[in-house]
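Reviewer comment 2.1 asked that we show a complete input and output for one of the modelled complexes. We chose the adenosine monophosphate case, as it is the one discussed in the main text.
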Amino acid sequence: VSVEIIKTPSAMRARSDAWRADGKRIAFVPTMGYLHEGHVSLLEEGRRRGDVLVLSIFVNPTQFGPKEDLSRYPRDLEGDLAKAARAGVEVAYVPDAPAMYPDGYQTYVDVERLREGLCGASRPGHFRGVATVVLKLLNAVQPNVALFGMKDYQQLQVIRRMTRDLDLPTEIVGLPIVREPDGLAMSSRNAYLSADERTRALALSHALAAARSAFTGGERDASRLVATARQLLDDRDGVRLDYLELRDGESLELIEGAVTRPVVLAVAAFVGNTRLIDNILLAP
Ligand code: AMP
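Response of the prediction step:
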C-alpha cells in the first residue's frame, strides 16, 4: 500500500473535484507531521467517516513566533507516510511554504475573541496563522468532514467558530486527547524532552487529574478547582507555568465562582525549553 503525495493547492483541488464528481465523501486530517497515536486516532475516525481520507503535513510558518521552534520542529516524512498507509490514507497533501505563501501573500483570518487569552496571550499571531492555514487547507481539500484533537482545545474552538462565521461547508469533529500510559498527553514536541524532563512533564496531567478528582468529589468552586491543580505545578523544579485557567467549554470565557456548565481546565507550561499544553473537560 502506498500513499499518493500531492504538493500544490491546485493539484489537491483537482483530485478533490474528481472525487466529489464520483460522489465520494472526503475526510481530512490536518497535521504538522511527526505522527503519533493522537494523529492516528484522528485518521482512524476519518477512515470511518469518509470514503476517501486525506492527511496533510505542513509545518505552517505563519503560526510560529519569531523565537519559536519552527526550524527545529521534528520531521519524519518517511515514517509519517508509513503510518498514513497503515491508517488507510489515500492522499498525503504535503505543500511547501512557497506553494502556500507565494510572493505577495497578504491575506489572514482573525477569529477576534476566541484567539485572545490562553495560548493566544503568550503566542501573539499564533491563531491568526492557524485559522489562515486551516482555511487554505480546507479550500484545497474540500472535505465533507475534518477531524481535530481536543489536545489543542483553543485551536478547535477557533476553527469551529471560523467554520460557522465564514459559512464553510465542512463538518468539524473534535476527538479526545490520546495519552501515554502514564498520562502524558501525546505531542510531537514530546520528542524534545530529555528523560528527566519527560518525568517532570507529568506534572501537567497529574495537576489536571487532581482537579478532576476534586470535581468528581463534588467541588464546584472555580478558584478551588484551579488551586487544587496549581499545587501540583507550583515550585516544581524545571517546570515553569505559563497559564492554568478554567474557562467556558465553548466561548472560552473565564469562569469565576461556581461551575454550572461544561468547562475546560487548560494548562500550558515550559518543561526546560519545551512548551507543553494539556486540558480536561469538566461537565456538571
Ligand atoms: P499537530 O500535528 O500537533 O498540529 O496536530 C494535528 C492534529 O492532531 C490537531 O488536531 C491536534 O489537536 C491533534 N492532536 C495532537 N496531539 C493529540 C493527542 N495527544 N490526542 C488527540 N489529538 C491530538
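Strands lie at 4-6, 26-31, 52-57, 91-93, 145-149, 171-175, 239-248, 263-271, 274-282. We note this here for comparison with the apo prediction described in Section 3.2.
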